Structures are given as C-alpha cells and as structure tokens.
C-alpha cells in the first residue's frame, strides 16, 4: 500500500521535526497559523529581521541561516509555540539546535511568566531530534553473554568498567570508550567523563579528549553544549 504524498504544508514532511520528537502533552500542528499552504520559515526570518546580520560569504552563515520554523501546541493549555530548528553543520557530527522561540498564549494579551518559559521542553525536543537523526555506529555485537568488538575480541559487560589502558596499544580503544561512556550514562552518571578519568587513573582532560575523539568517529552521539560529561 503506497504511502500518502506529503502536502506542502505538512510540517513533518522534511523529517527535521516529527510528532514523535515532542514530549507528552505537545503536538505538531498540521499547518502553519493562518492555514498557510507552504513553509513560511524564510518569510518569518525576514519579518523578524533575523536575517539582517548575514552577508554573502559570512563564515557563520551555515550555522545561522536557513532555519526552519515549526509550530507546536500544548494540548492542555492550547499554548502555541513556534520553534526555529537549525542544522549545525560545523558540529561534529552535524546536529539540530533550537535557535529561536515565539511563545503565544492561548488568549492574546495573557501575560507570559518566567515559570511558563521554563516549562518549554526545548531541551527534550532537541535531544529527541538528535537521537533520531544521529544513528550511532554499531560498535559491538552480542554473542551469548559476551560483547564482540570489531577486532573480534570478546569482553563481558562488567569489563566495561575496567581501566581502558593506552589508546595506542589497546585494540578497539575508542569503541571501548564509547561503550564505557554509554554504560555510565545509562546508570545515571551525571559526568561520565570524570568517572572514566577516575577508573583509568588519568586526568579529566585526557578522558574528555577520548570522548571527543569517539564522538568525531561517530561512536557517540553529540553532547550538549555547556553540559559536563
């Protein structure tokens, strides 16, 4: 059975934001406000003056230009929010960030409090988008109760919390970095890089360098700016 052809105003058609990326209680409106028949992101940028800082050949252009505005609604309060989603092409790997917010209460003229703004789930939406768009490379397979690394070496799950050793001497070193980081994060560790430094007896900056290299190799998803770990 053929899938329906996306309509020009379908906000999920380009795959940048889907209904599944939104937390419980929020939904992606079927159309832009005013029953627009197309994506009006460029027009919104122009009206807001969000494009007036850009000049041809600006080195930051790929970081700020060509953002896509998406219109979401809160089901319980009918609060309307437009978020500007921007692919960060210079990030490694590339990722999506929210680079603008328009907040519209259900009743025009209602006040907007700092409490209401803090409740906007921008971080959750960003995380959901990047988790979906960024497919972490498979670094290991399972065979019985053993993890099989790309080199063929087999380790147990409890081995993931052992010292990592020397990156120049240990096969699959950065795959192990990714697996250890993922295990610690899955256990709720708020700063897995610091814990990794303690496990291996190295400086925090060394462990952070390992994690950064694992990210560049596509073995870990992008980290959030300004957040430890």
What does this structure look like?
The protein is 28% helix and 16% strand. It is built from 7 helices and 7 strands; from the N terminus they run βααβββααβββααα. With 229 residues, the chain is of the alpha+beta class. The chain is elongated, with a radius of gyration of 22 Å. Strand 3 and strand 4 form a beta hairpin.
Quick recap:
This protein is 28% helix and 16% strand. It has 229 residues and is an alpha+beta fold.
Based on secondary structure, the structural category is alpha+beta
Strand content of the residues, in percent? 15-25%
Q: Strand order, biggest sheet?
A: 1-2-3-4
State mean pLDDT (0 to 100 scale): 79
Say how many strands there are: 7
Gyration radius over CA = 22 Å
Tell me the distance between the termini. 45 Å
| Main β sheet profile | 4 strands, antiparallel
Number of helices: 7
Shape assignment: elongated
Question: H/E order of the elements?
Answer: EHHEEEHHEEEHHH
Low-confidence stretches: 55-64
Percent helix range = 25-40%
Topology:
Blueprint: E1 26-28, H1 41-48, H2 61-64, E2 68-74, E3 80-88, E4 95-104, H3 114-118, H4 122-133, E5 141-143, E6 146-148, E7 154-155, H5 173-186, H6 192-200, H7 204-216
Antiparallel strand pairs: 1-2, 2-3, 3-4, 5-6, 6-7
Helix pairs in contact: 5-6, 5-7, 6-7
